[in-house]
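Re-running Amidoligase family protein to confirm reproducibility after the cluster update. Everything else is unchanged from the original entry.
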Amino acid sequence: MASKNERAEMKTMIHQMTYGVEVEMTAITRESAAHVTASVLGAGSSVHYLGGAYHKYQVIDPQGREWLFVSDCSINAIDSNGRQADSRGAYSCELNTPPLYLADMDTLQNVIRALRNAGAKTGARYGCGIHVHVGSKEHTARSLKNFINLVFSQEEMLYKALGVDESRIRNWCVPMNNRRGGYSEHGTPTNFMEDLKGCKTIEQIETAWYKNFSGSAPEYCRTSHYDESRYHLLNLHRYFSTRGKDCNTIEIRAFNATLHAGVIRSFVLLVLSMNAKALTSTRIKAEKNPIMTAGNEKFAMRTWLVSMGWTGDMFKNPRQHLLKNLASNSAWRFGKSGDLYR
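Result of re-run:
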């Protein structure tokens, strides 16, 4: 468990980090979504059609930041009357936010609420999901390994807490030591986590990543936007392909589609806290959470969140969102009677 000072440091750090969110939706056109967003962002906002392969609409907010609405062929689109629509057509709609800070959370939530009120719909039935990015230029080989080990250690709990269905795990957010496809329900096991142990530099981590998940050299893989390795719970292809650029981020892909502003807030806080934990820890081991393994899911999640600074009113509702899908007892590790989960 992190010390009180370490938890306080993590709570401070998350206010200084940037994040971005991709929110997939349908039943609203990209043009309409852009104008709805501009109305929320206020006077001085402008809407522009950029076109291109993703048929982009751009909203420039009063601070000069770019909010994009793009098409995504994975969305099972419907029109505003609920009829099937073209997956690349006007009703295929994905919001890409600019880099934001926690101070911008009210703005993001107001945009989400306005889109929902304007008729946007989302959910697994429409093939939609949510991805959260966190700015990652400050990572070293040590902290990057920490992030990987953190996700590997907690991935079963994350999948369950987030309610990720099997098809999404299998296709779009595969476990850290598996490769998409093959004979296993969650992909084909690889040697990535074993190879990671010997990595001392970011370049070595990159080589291990692409070798196991794409089967090719980094200099080839990192230039491909849709490299096969991107489809993991923790997408490091995003990190390696943008390294050295202002847009450098790490992406978490496991979030179910929602237009509930409070749930999206909990997703963002979770990713920021995981990043802070990776950056501040001397070493995070690649060991499965023993409390989760023993079966007390809620206690495992609650104590893990506390170890990342999740205390106080700021985290009350987000914590409830992340505990609601888990079983057992959040207050007692071994159950109130002390005879369980041993």
